[in-house]
Design a protein that fits this description.
Rossmann fold; 6-stranded mixed beta sheet; 15% strand
Length: 264
């Protein structure tokens, strides 16, 4: 995603399926789709004949060992905050000789975040719980917490930390958002409310329960701006309206009812 925004997509010889989810045009041509930094294999990397490998969190020790085993120059990114992501964009840009483009991309991201922040500040803040994994329940990363605040929310729990469901229940979120890694927008919202006894939270009672396509929040790249708009639409739907990659529990339930009706 970063290379695409820098206008350097032609340098990519291989990527993961998650990259293709964010940048579908990467599927054009003869680029290889290979395993990610959780399950990388040296044989796949070598088959693509890259000069340079870029990977980002999450990592698994065995996968990192496989990347190193390939013997190709390797840049391992592990951002936590938006500032970290801006630094990573600038670093990648400097490697491929696109520093001017990096300045444009970073400024565009910052301007968009500030615009949403200014609009959201006109309305009351809402208590928001946003999670990146469901079993165990893990709160989204610090950069997501920053975006939640920009979109008019108060981020509940500690970013990136495992959270007991009863703790979140006690905090009574007004908005619940699930962006599970690798799940797209296919999070079973009614099931998690039922199993965690969250139906009686304010979010559960008002149906302000959503899933956001995980690549929009879990990819530390400019795609986060689409995630920001989805967050804003979830937190203040009456202000920001519908957004790409956002599904409400009402939509999920309605779709399920339609399927049952057709089968019946």
């Amino acid at each position: 995603m970063i290379l695409a925004n820098l206008g350097q997509l032609d340098r990519v010889v291989a990527c993961t399926k998650y990259c293709a989810d964010v940048v579908p045009e990467v599927l054009r041509g003869n680029r290889m789709i290979i395993a990610d930094s959780w399950s990388a294999r040296a044989s796949e990397i070598l088959a693509a004949q890259p000069d340079f490998v870029i990977a980002a969190v999450p990592y698994q020790e065995k996968a990192v060992a496989e990347i190193l085993k390939a013997g190709v120059r390797f840049l391992a990114l592990s951002p936590r905050t938006l500032d970290d992501i801006y630094t990573d964009i600038a670093l990648i840009a400097s490697i491929v000789g696109a520093s001017d483009e990096a300045t444009r991309v970073i400024s565009s991201m910052q301007d968009e975040i500030e615009e949403v922040r200014r609009k959201a500040e006109l309305f009351p803040r809402k208590r928001v719980f946003c999670e990146e994994w469901g079993k165990p329940v893990i709160a989204s990363q610090p950069w997501v917490a920053e975006l939640v605040r920009a979109a008019g929310g108060e981020f509940l729990s500690d970013p990136g930390r495992q959270c007991p469901p009863e703790e979140i229940f006690r905090q009574d979120p007004e908005v619940i958002i699930a962006a599970w890694c690798g799940a797209g927008d296919r999070v079973p919202l009614p099931k998690i409310l039922r199993e965690r006894a969250w139906s009686s939270t304010t979010a559960g009672r008002t149906s302000q329960v959503y899933c956001i396509s995980d690549e929009l929040l879990n990819t530390p790249a400019p795609t986060l701006i689409s995630g920001l708009h989805a967050l804003a639409a979830a937190i203040h739907p009456e202000v920001f309206g519908p957004a790409l990659g956002l599904r409400s529990i009402t939509q999920v339930v309605t779709a399920g009812m339609n399927v049952h009706s057709e089968l019946g």
